[in-house]
Amino acid sequence: MLLSHSWSFTMLQLCGLSRPRQWFSGWKKYFYNSLTIFSSLCIYVFTLTGLVKIITSPSFGEAARSSFMALTMFGVSCKIANWILRSNDIIIVMEILNNDVCRPRGNEELAIQTKFDNLSRTNTMFFGGIAEGIVIDVTITSLLENIAQRTLPFPAWFPFDCTSDWKFWIAFLHQILAHGIAANIGTFHDTFFHEIMIQARAKLNILKFRLRSIPEAIEKPHLKNKDNDGERKKSRLYSQLQEEIYKFVKKSNEVFNIVLLVQFSVSAFVICMSTYMLSKLTIHSPEFIFIVVYLLSMILQIFLMCWHGNEVIVESMDVRNAIYDMDWCSLGPNSKKDLHLMMTRTYYRLEYTTSHLITLSLESYNSLLKLSYSMYNLLQTST
């Protein structure tokens, strides 16, 4: 599956983050640029009003109530800025695996690729469905409760009185619209990054399949000679595939590492604040249910990120086992040198990091939850 044809990338295009290639001139270009500016401004204004509300809050409890959504929107704002500023690099990342070396060959490799493509779609549908459900829930709740009470869905500071009719509707519609756009951008930005890691896993599995099939290939009558060109060509192609995979992971990590760091930092704080707020609310409170759902979605967001990152690490280290398990003794000396080079390369494991500080793995996920719990205990003892 081409990343440029994925559901996540298509949704990000609909939100105004990635202009289609055929829209680089004429009225379509200006229309799409206007959509990008509109979406970005909605979210940045929401973030700004939320952060100002935190600063101007008279009590810690009110600041905590304001912080979890404002910080989440801050994380989405960073994702938007990173995507727009590094759009050319993102295109380069999507094109790395789109070459003859990386394309699946034969029914077995197509089956491997299809397996991971289906996993990618399921992941996007599952996580995207949760996000859309939260957006619908917030919208319906706001229509039923906030309008009647003339209150905003989320705490925010505005330079005008929001109790008057037309000013209230401006602020209300802005928050509902910005929350919907941000939920889609944040969700499908994450699932797009999931798809990047899933594609890396797919290519690693194809590489392992090709390595195990080398001895079978050279048993063909025209490949009986150990030093024949066909055998050496295969081993070099497989070494090149491994090199392309390493290049793909390195480049994609360079593009998204700052965003990953912001995501981890925001998630730790939001999980902490959400837990703190739950401890102050009653179970029958409408706000309690919303925060529980929001907290679980945030935990799931980080878990999926760390789980896919952990799988990339495991799959990359398993390449050496594929080389060791194959009948490499039947290969010629030149092919053995290529395999030795590939084996050496596997000692530099593939991993996604947050600016070289945190590695996406299940261990990091556990550490994040422990950090959030420690912050929660600190807040409980100090308030």
TrEMBL record:
One cellular component term from this protein's GO annotations in UniProt: plasma membrane
Keyword Membrane: yes
Record-linked Pfam families: 7tm_6
Annotated compartments: Cell membrane; Membrane
Family annotation (InterPro entries): 7tm6_olfct_rcpt (IPR004117)
Claim: Transmembrane is one of the keywords in the record: yes
Highest taxon in the source lineage: Eukaryota
Protein name as annotated: Odorant receptor
Originating species: Campoletis chlorideae
The organism's taxonomic lineage, starting at the top: Eukaryota, Metazoa, Ecdysozoa, Arthropoda, Hexapoda
